[in-house]
């Protein structure tokens, strides 16, 4: 039996090109969020389990089946965060910002944990980049958030479809749920086991069941978009108008209910057809009652999160790759000189210094392995005439130049 230890199922190390892309994404997404007036927030990875039960909802799959939950040494019921919104709302209420009034905009990124069945695009530890806004009820902010996500996806050259829905409010949603349950009662027993459970806990979740027979049975189900109260309907119409006016395309999908229970009014998902079955790159919406659910004073909220792993599948680095210099020596006596050159070069350019003396070919191979594009070598000859040998690995050009010109 092997005694090596491997990473847990659905969890992976981030290294090499992937980790470079990760940093590249965070830097640029952060800049865009900052341009929209967001500032950075970091909340703990571990929170009280009750936080997620009261926000994401006890009927959601996330809380029901997917939490990394345990009792800590102080007998506290805690869990690794399955998403980022709840922690930010907890902070907002804890700091009494609901009482202070005003608007607050935060962005965050980091790992989230869900004990799901791993598959392509679905991990147990994954990373999100998210934004949350408090204190703005205007539907223009819904459009603003959508525009922010679009700007991030556009920056990285990612194609997407925006799916849009309105989930109504405390006035119209309960009536809609009643109608839906009434409609379904005729063929309830034909729905899958999960749908039957959902009917008891949160009936609208049957609308996004992936089982083909359920989908067919629900084809003629009443649509929430036809049951909205005046206020929700006006907001939804206005949102569509703003998006149309700003050339942001969308598809209304009245079956888009989201897997978290805290949403009302606007709900959306950005999906891509290029990453397989787990097609949602980003999701979010309005959560005007969540602050209350967590014991605060009623405050409007809206936000989104991008799944970084799914997005990175699609990212093409836009900027030209930076130079990466490899400095090597052909003999031991040249190392002092090379060390001094490397320290100077690193002030402006990413530089690797190789300590082991080697021949030309071995240095080239090593440089390539490290991802360097320029090789600079010093040997006895170069030491004596004050030069350095340079080879550009992309163009294959090579020359000896004065050390001072390097
Ligand atoms: P969510 O739709 O559950 O929303 O997750 C957002 C994104 O995280 C998804 O669109 C997907 O790209 C990524 N994601 C989710 N689960 C996994 C997984 N198991 N493996 C890889 N990627 C995954 C939320 O989490 C909300 N907190 C978003 C939000 C913020 N709503 C308002 N504010």
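^ structure tokens above, recovered residues below v
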């Amino acid at each position: 039996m092997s005694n090596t230890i491997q990473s847990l199922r659905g969890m992976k190390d981030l290294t090499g090109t992937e980790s470079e892309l990760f940093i590249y994404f965070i830097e640029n997404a952060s800049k865009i969020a900052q341009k929209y007036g967001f500032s950075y927030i970091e909340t703990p990875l571990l929170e009280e389990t009750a936080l997620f039960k009261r926000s994401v909802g006890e009927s959601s799959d996330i809380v029901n089946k997917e939490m990394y939950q345990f009792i800590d040494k102080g007998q506290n019921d805690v869990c690794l965060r399955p998403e980022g919104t709840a922690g930010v709302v907890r902070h907002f209420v804890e700091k009494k910002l609901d009482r202070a009034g005003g608007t607050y905009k935060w962005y965050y990124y980091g790992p989230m944990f869900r004990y799901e069945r791993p598959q392509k695009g679905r991990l147990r530890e994954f990373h999100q980049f998210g934004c949350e806004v408090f204190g703005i009820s205007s539907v223009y902010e819904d459009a603003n958030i959508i525009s922010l996500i679009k700007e991030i996806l556009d920056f990285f050259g990612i194609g997407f479809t925006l799916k849009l829905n309105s989930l109504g409010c405390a006035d119209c949603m309960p009536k809609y749920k009643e109608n839906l349950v009434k409609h379904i009662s005729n063929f309830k027993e034909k729905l899958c086991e999960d749908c039957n459970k959902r009917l008891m806990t949160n009936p609208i979740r049957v609308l996004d069941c992936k089982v083909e027979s359920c989908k067919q049975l629900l084809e003629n189900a009443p649509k929430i978009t036809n049951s909205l109260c005046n206020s929700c309907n006006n907001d939804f119409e206005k949102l569509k108008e703003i998006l149309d006016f700003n050339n942001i395309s969308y598809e209304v999908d009245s079956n888009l209910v989201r897997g978290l229970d805290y949403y009302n009014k606007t709900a959306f998902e950005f999906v891509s057809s290029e990453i397989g079955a787990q097609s949602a790159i980003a999701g979010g919406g309005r959560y005007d009652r969540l602050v209350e659910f967590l014991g605060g004073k009623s405050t409007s909220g809206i936000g989104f999160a991008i799944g970084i792993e799914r997005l990175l599948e699609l990212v093409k680095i836009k900027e030209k790759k930076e130079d990466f210099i490899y400095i090597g020596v052909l003999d031991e006596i040249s190392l002092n000189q090379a060390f001094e050159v490397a320290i100077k070069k690193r002030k402006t350019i990413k530089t690797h210094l190789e300590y082991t003396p080697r021949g030309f070919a071995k240095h080239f191979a090593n440089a390539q392995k490290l991802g360097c594009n320029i090789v600079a070598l010093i040997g006895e000859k170069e030491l004596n005439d004050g030069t350095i040998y340079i080879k550009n690995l992309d163009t294959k050009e090579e020359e000896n130049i004065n050390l001072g010109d390097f």
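DSSP finds 15 helices and 16 strands in the chain.
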